[in-house]
Design goal:
The protein is mainly beta. It starts with a strand and ends with a strand.
Amino acid sequence: QVQLVESGGGLVQAGGSLRLSCAASGRTFGTYAMGWFRQAPGKEREFVAAVSWSGGLYADSVKGRFTISRDNAKNTVYLQMNSLKAEDTAVYYCAARTGRSIYITSREYTYWGQGTQVTVSS
């Protein structure tokens, strides 16, 4: 079992930055592929970024603005979000799956955090 706890969300003006953190429990964090997804009101949950020990992947909508990273010593994955836009407003979820493969579909991820709200004012 892995428990994920997100933090770092908040209200920011367009063009600003936020860094989300996701702290994971367990001793095998390094073996998990980690992802960030988001869900805006009235919309489906969508892929944002993911990272494993073999590499990373980004949605086109955030490429060049967001950076995903992980610190295996701290069992934490981060999402640095720069140049935020109003359309980035959503609840952001951290997700984990065993193995090194990265997937952009939410059903491939086994463990989920409770989400953290990001609101970008225009």
